Structure formats: C-alpha cells, structure tokens
Amino acid sequence: MVKSLLALVATITIAPLSAQNSPQTAAPLRPNAAAAEPAAEDWRDIPADEILLLQLKSGRQVVVRLAARLAPAHVNNIRKLAMARWWDGESVYRVQENWVAQWGDPTEKKPLPPEILARPPSEFEVAGVSPALRLSKPDSYASATGITADGWPIATDGKATWLTHCYGMVGVARDQLPDTGTGAELFTPIGQSARRLDRNYTVVGRVIEGMQHLSGLPRSDAPMGVYADAAERTGILWARLASQLPPDERPHFQYRATDNERYAAMIALREHPAPPTVATGLNVCDLPVAVRRRP
Amino acid sequence: MVKSLLALVATITIAPLSAQNSPQTAAPLRPNAAAAEPAAEDWRDIPADEILLLQLKSGRQVVVRLAARLAPAHVNNIRKLAMARWWDGESVYRVQENWVAQWGDPTEKKPLPPEILARPPSEFEVAGVSPALRLSKPDSYASATGITADGWPIATDGKATWLTHCYGMVGVARDQLPDTGTGAELFTPIGQSARRLDRNYTVVGRVIEGMQHLSGLPRSDAPMGVYADAAERTGILWARLASQLPPDERPHFQYRATDNERYAAMIALREHPAPPTVATGLNVCDLPVAVRRRP
User: Fold this and answer.
1) Is residue A293 in some structural domain?
2) Domain containing B165 — which CATH number?
3) How far is B137 from chain A (nearest CA, A)?
4) Where is the PPIase cyclophilin-type domain (chains A, B) (predicted)?
C-alpha cells in the first residue's frame, strides 16, 4: 500500500504548534504524540533466514537484517556462505576512520563455496519498489527519499530507486568491476553516511543490533584502513543465519511496518519537532531503525 | 568575497563527460582535475589561539580548530578554560553510539575559572556570514548549504544562518536552558551527523586531527552514553591552545580558502563525479575538511 505522507497526515488528529511561534510563521501541523505510537499489529516478524548473526571472538554479537527482496542474488550468496560456515574464523580486518568497517577474508584467497554465484549481477538499484512514505524534502543526493513498507530506506531520482548507504547499512565490497562482489566481503559505514556509494555498490542489509561493536573498534592508520598487523583484527567466531540455529536458541526480531498513519505521524513529529528544537526536516539516514526483539 | 558556484565554474576550463554517457542525459560540466588543485596561496595559516590541543593520557592527541569569529563568546570562554588548565586531569566521559563523544568534568561540580562568562549568550546562529560557495542542492534540513571563505560548513533557511552539526564538529553541551553551556563540556558527533541539533546548540569548532581517538572509543551502554564506571573514561592529560605552548613546540595548521575557482572546481567535480560513480550531489557534511599541518 503506497500512500504519501500528506495523505496520511490528513487522516490523523493534529494539534497546532504552541502560541510561542511568531505569528508570521505558518505553524506546521504536528500530530499528537499518542498518534505516533505503533499499534501491536505494526510489529511484523522478520523471517529467521533474513537475520545474519556475527558472533565475535570478544563474545559480542552483531545482528544484520538482510534485504532479501531488494538484493536477492547477493542475499542468496550470503545465505549459502553462512550455511557453509565460510566466515567462521575470519575477521573484521578493515576499520577506516569516518568511512567503513569491513569483514570477511582479508587475504581474498579463501575458496568460496561452489554453490554460490561467483559473479552475481550487480544489484545497485532496486526495481519495482516505491516508498510507503516519502520524506517532505529532497536531499543532497536524490530528488526524493523515503522508506519501504517493511522499513528499508530508499532514494530515487524519479527513474531509478536504490537503497541508501546510511550509517549501519551493510554493503558488498568489491574490486573495480561491478560484478566482482560476491557478498563474502561486507562493509558498514561507521561515520558520516557513505551516500556517494549509492547506486555503485550493492546494499544487502542493515546492522540492527550490536553496531557499537563495529563502530567502536580502533581505526587503522594503514592505507584504506586495512589493519597492517593481523593481531589488530577482530576475530569472528562464527556467522550464522538465525534459521540455522536450533529453534530454542534462535533470536526473533520484528520490524515496524511503515504503511500506516501511526508511522506517518511519527515522521511528521520528527520533521516538525517541538520547540526548543528549531531544525525542521529529516534526512532518510536519520530515520529511526525501527526493529526490536520479539517480546 | 562571495561568489556562487555557478559564477565560479563559468570562469574555469570545463570538459564534457565521456561519450559513455547515454545521449539523453544532459552531460554535467566537469572541470579538469588540475583546475581543482589548490594554489599555494589558498593555504592560509590558522592563528595559534584558534587551535585547541587535547592530549589524552593514552599518548594520543586530538586537535580542534575553534570558530573564533562565529561563536566568539564561547570560544573566548574556551580560551580562558585552556589558559586556566581547567581540563587537565579531566576526561572523555560520554561516548554514545551513533551520537556523540563528550569531554570535560563528568561531575559538573568542578569550579569554573572566575574570568569566564558563566552564562554566555547562546550562539546557535551566526550573524553576518554568507557562504563563499553554495552547494547546488538544498538538503533535508536547510534551503541552502555551503561553506564560508575560511572553511566552515554552514546552512541557511534564507533568514538565519548556522554552523552545521556534521561528524567531527564540536558543540557546547548544556542543560535544558539555552544559556547554560559555558564551553567547559564539549561534544562531537561520532556517527551519522547530528543535524537535529542545528540552531539549538552552539557550535564552536571542528576536530581537524585525531578524530579517530574519539570515534574509536568503546561505547557506553549506560543512559545517554555516560560511562557508568569511572575506569571506562579516557583521561585528558592536558588541554592547551597552541598559542600557550613554547614557540618551538607549537604545531601550525592551515586551512584551504574556498573563495576561489580552484575550490569551486573541486566541489563541481564532487557534485558530478566521474563514472562509474553514479551518485551526484554533495552534502555539506561530506565537504572535505581541508586543513593541513603547515609544510
């Protein structure tokens, strides 16, 4: 179901801004905070084969939600890599200041499982996807931005649509040629968003828990942020799909659906915050990651 | 000297995009890379009393450039705090995931030097400042953004102008009331930019060296990211203005002036990158921090 923000906001209770505002400013319409609360049915289960768990040797865990519908070829590879336990014993080997943390095999020599696509088609853009909710303003890199019904941040130039390289999104590292990324080497932006990679790298997911275990790692001074000394790497004990774990050990996650007036109200509140906050607007990369463990 | 990007670009040599582009796309004009190189005279000395050095107990150093002209009351306080050696022995006591690192006195009980303004006027917006160069597109939080002649990122809504809370900018922490920040407690965004703080917090500078020593610190799980255990804090050995150090120990920094066609050409190249990069545009927070140590 595709609705514009304005159409949705028109259906909900609104309250004018307080009288503190100068009379010459048109008062933006702010929904009541209660109207922005999710309903129980807004929380939808994320399938267990769309959750990738990275268990670090430090005992910490990073959880990635996979964009199975939006980057199917690469997510399929990632599932097979996890099933083959390919990342077990590998590492986070690159942490570049204000850029990315990257994990996989730093030697790029470890054989890949035969069942994966060695050269999957690039999935830099996503077909047949519209935002369930558009943000009010264009941003520096797109004519419109918004979020899919199932919670993925996207941008468009009116023709193509793509997943945005926001902080915490997970992309496929590759060599020069567009089809040289398999999904074995993955990265996530750890500083200012990496939007200049949009439409040139395949985005396969987002870190939904444990991002601090990647963003808080020591930066490397070596070229491209690749640790010069193997001892600096953060070891990966194992990586699994949640669906690989025994049922009683599986974590369960839910996303907040966005194609409803409650989410639209939440965005309206953020786009027109209450005083004393003055900044209006909302960048697609500042949209909250609305995911939780299933209660 | 205030010039628009278009006016500047019109004066420089341009080259059309390569013939690889589809013919129905209007080819953006890209300057030659050589036109974007700074001239020797573009590098201007930063005064020694606009450089704040934070020497951490770990032996690492963080260098902050102070926006003396744009936040004079708070920078004046910061200078006096450094002269009084107020931060010596204090710490980085707050590191909140995808938000900020903050330093000063976590108890907020340490007496402030009598010579500082205890309640300086808020400097959330900057008066009398125009961008020397405007970026082509508005962004999610402003009708126009750009950079001052001396390299500070700014945004405007057509009436007010303000410094933007980009990654690595330095802001003044405060309590609820707008005039409760003195400059003693400072923070810097360590994740996605913190633009929702724009016009509501005073920005006093930017980290120009050593940002990785703040961004790479372990995140706290405690409320607001304030370390629950004092042992988690990163100690500050001393903080000084460069001008306080003996002349032969002072580091010297330079910024790249932006009010010239070379800088405009650099921006034009980034707004219209060469293939295979597809993303066009440039966010004000992705402008390069064009600062160097004086050769």
Assistant:
1) no
2) 2.40.100.10
3) 6
4) 60-217
Q: Are A255 and A150 in contact (CB under 8 A)?
A: yes
Alpha carbons within 13 angstroms on the beta-carbon side of residue A270 total 20
- Residue B92 structure tokens: 């980085």
Residue contacts between A and B (CB atoms, under 8 Å): 130
pLDDT, tens digit, for every residue of A8-65? 333 333 333 333 333 344 445 788 999 999 999 999 999 999 999 999 999 999 999 9
* Residue type at A287 in one-letter notation: L
Inter-chain touch B140–A135, beta carbons under 8 Å: yes
Verify whether the Cβ–Cβ distance A282 to B98 is below 8 Å.
Answer: no
> How many domains are there within chain A?
1
Q: In whole angstroms, what is the distance from residue B180 CA to residue B266 CA? A: 40
On whether the CB atoms of residues B284 and B139 are closer than 8 A, the answer is yes
Reading the block at residue B280, the tokens are: 């066009």
Whether B14 maps to a domain, the answer reads no
Over the stretch B14-48, which tens digit does the pLDDT of each residue have? 333 333 333 344 445 788 999 999 999 999 999 99
Structural domain including B172 reads 45-256
Burial (CB < 10 A; 0-12, 13-18, 19+), residue A61, is middle
Is A268 part of a structural domain of the chain? no
Between positions 70 and 99 of A, the ones with CB within 8 A of B are: 95, 97-98
Rounded-to-10 torsion of CA A195, B269, B272, B21: -130
